Amino acid sequence: MKIEVLFPEICNLYGDLQNIEYLRRSFKENGVDCEIIDTALKTEPYFASHDDMALIYMGTVTEHGQELVMDALKPYKDRIRELMDAGKVFLVTGNAWEVFGEYIECDDGRQIPCLGLLKTHAVRRMMKRYNSLYVGKFGDMDIVGFKSQFTHSYGEFTPLFETVRGDGLNPEVKGEGIRINNFLATYIIGPLLILNPPFTKYLMRLCGAESDKLAYEEAAMDVYTHRLEEFMQPERGLTY
Question: Fewest CB atoms within 10 Å of the CB: 90, 102, 178, 183?
Answer without folding.
Answer: 102
